[in-house]
Design a protein that fits this description.
This protein is of the alpha+beta class and about 90 residues long. Helices cover about 15% and strands about 35% of the residues.
């Protein structure tokens, strides 16, 4: 199944395997996603995620409010459903 990423007003499609983080899936598709530490500590990969349930392995940046509002750290996020998902980078 193909998922969608919106980065800098450009839309990309990508595949997201169960064992990949969102960031790993984006980078594997050569999508220019923002990131830095890849450890859930900097927030550079923060994005909105819609389309199904997901979970983060680590989170040292986002507040409970951010998470309730659909924000995730792409470097720590795994999908829990099939989707399709849509990731939107606002920064």
């Amino acid at each position: 199944m193909e998922h969608i990423a919106q980065i800098d007003n450009t839309e990309y499609t990508f595949r997201w395997n169960d064992n990949q983080t969102l960031l790993e899936a984006l980078l594997a598709a050569d999508i220019p996603a923002n990131y830095s530490c890849q450890q859930g500590q900097c927030g550079a990969c923060q994005c909105s995620l819609e389309g199904g349930k997901s979970h983060m392995k680590e989170n040292h940046v986002l507040s409970d409010y951010d998470i309730r509002d659909g924000e995730v750290l792409a470097c720590q996020t795994y999908r829990d459903e099939e989707g399709p998902y849509q990731a939107i980078y606002w920064f």
